[in-house]
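Good morning,

Both structures are done.
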Amino acid sequence: MQLRVVASFVVATAFFCGHARADEHSASVRLKDSEVFVLHRGRAGVSLDERSQRASHALNSALDDDSQPRVEQRGNLSVVYLGNVSVVEIDSDDARAAGDGSARDQAIRLSTRVREALQRERRRQRIASSVFSISLVVLFGLLTVFLTRRVAQLSNRIRTILSEQPERVPAVKIYSLELLSPSSFRNALTVLSGGFKWLAQLTLLYAWLVVSLSLFQSTQALTSRLTGALLVPLSQFATRLFGSLPVVAAVAVVGLAVVLSLRFTRLFFASVASGEIRTGWIAADTARTVGRLVQTGIVLATLVFVAPVLTGDDSGALSLAGWMLTAMLGLSAVPVLATILAGTAFSLIHGAKIGDWLEVGGAGGRVEALTPLDVRLRADEATVLRVPYLLTLVRVVRVRAERLVRATCAAPWSVDTDGLVAHLKSALVQVGTSPTVELLPGSGGLDVVLTVTSADPDAQTRLLNFGSDAVAAFVQKSENAP
């Protein structure tokens, strides 16, 4: 019994010692944490462990590129390459130690294992990278949403403060000169806060989009295009801007001078309109309109004459804008110029004077004033007609020193009509010339229509009063006759 136990112990010891010696004469070549193949011996002064470490380093170095293993014959050696890097060299002794028929057979077998290991590891890395990239996209998206909401809250808070506490906004001044009133400055800050909100939100969204596209290999080309489409124009603009700093400074000075001139002009004409300043060359009623014209002239003169001097380019953007505005103003002034020319033609052709009776179409009155743009007619004591000269080109115009005056009065049915007509014609010569009398049936008697030609401004009133008195006198005389 004791002899059997001792024999079993000896056999077990021999087995474990032999297995340990076999493990001592082999080394694993690993890709990351996985075993790819096993080497059984060192060669040419290189130990087994060093040889396996070199092969493992070559495999891990080639993991990030797309190189595939291949076998090349170099003398009596079969070499497994990854790209230009030698992974392992196999000779006939290595083949016998591994139990293969030849060195090339073992090299092909090892090449197949290397290819399979690289495919597995690269697939695992792609999956891990995709999962990590998707996680980053979600994380950055949540961060973008948070920052976007914070920007909106900040903008709304600023606008609330500006609306609820307007007294906290001061005026913009240069010493004692006020450039912007508190209300104007508050409105500008309100607009800027809204613009800042949209600009910041779009910037955050653009940054998230660029970062998200750059995380995936298939969309990295879109990232470069998207970035170039935005940054290249900005960089070119910045280069041009810094290269023209002297011109920018001069433009800023001229711009400040123009702003001050416009403000002074507005304040001056506003004071004239309110009556604080009285001048003989402009009426208070037209001061604001003249002020706008002067401000427009200042801007146009600056763009047309000053801008080319500052930029050194007669065909620059500012000069071109000035000429375009001038052309627009010229086109808009065509009706005014046409009216002035029509007024000149009217004065030469018709020769109307102050006090003449003028009829244009169906409207008429005595000429009270001849302005550059229209003729003013006094129709009666409470009505003044302004007739543009352009209207005289398409309407019938009658000019005469005397006008036709008409008035209507009443007479009874029983009156002697022939005698009344003769009496009125002889009496109306005291009011005007060419008197006419027409009797028409009315609601309670006869309507007596009287017409004379007179240059007297009050001829119609005199005709009505004189005709009524003449009719009443004739009727009374007829009734008292035997």
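Second structure follows.
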Amino acid sequence: MLTTQDIMENKKRYAKLETTSFQHFRAAVLDSEKKGTREGERNKRFLNLPDAEIYKWLKLAEGSFSKRLDDQMHSLRVLEPKAQLDMKAALAVGTEKGEVTDAVFEEICEHIENSYGFLGKILVVAFVEFWDVPEKAKDGKTLEDGERVSKRILVTICPVGLTSPGLEFKLDEDAVTNADRKWMVGKPETAFLWPSWESREDRKDRIMYFCADPTQPHHKFITEGLGCTDIETATEARKKFESMILQAEEDGDAGRAYLQQIKDAIEEYYQEAQNVPFPSPEMLMARETFKEVLNGAQILDEELVDEYDLTFQEKPKMKWLVSEKDIAEAEKRRNKKRLSSLMKDAARELKKLSNGDTELAKRLIAEAEKNERRSK
């Protein structure tokens, strides 16, 4: 199973020249309007590059990983190849030879052109890595010597776009002219590593996959380009869940209030059951669990439970349905309610001490009621 530790072990290693173990890399720009062309191609032994250039390529490699499991980072299961093109086989050839050969790079680019669905220009970079895997001591500390060698290929896809038009002041000519626009490489938007690195082992039956935008993980590329089982990101599941609930109410404001109520109920369900928010990352929102959540919030909506069952054939993880922002906002509302309760308690004590009504008690109660209205 893919863990944050596995991801960060790669990300941190690619951040420094001293820890990188890239052997070879190949890069080219693909143009959606010129299928089959490879612009600005690079084909080099990685450590033969100047240090300043190495750091720029490493920046792309490091940016191909994220700690956001199930949203930006995924473990894809490789299926048996059914088409003539087989991405896993091409990657295996590259790792065996220790370089991205013409045939390997051509097949990688062909997969991307046929299934990635891009417009304009993109940069494709393939890194071959031979990593002497350090062993871990029982206390978790890294040992210097390792007997295993992990052979893998990291492929990173980055957008390429023109800089914005602007004006340039040329001091030697004492003139303002149109500035030359440049083609610039953006941050990685998609990347994949084979074999996937999970539980400190090479998984040749899986591909580690990164998508910068979890609302658009490139499903066609996952299934047809990489030949893997498709996935649903946490963001996609949450958006689908939100849409389902909003459609249950005809009035928009009523729908948003209903959604907030249910999201709060989900988050509170975790806290009450486990005493900490989202303690079990793998806990699924089954039909009966969803029904329990609604009942706990005194929501009796059997039609919504049925709709949930139809919407999610494969049940999502419960933590996917409530974002970190939702949790933070729910906590703010709870804090306001607690503050209101304390203010009312204080007002009652003031009345007792003064043997009757006081101006301060009235103000405290009024402020508490205002606070309660804001927290709804």
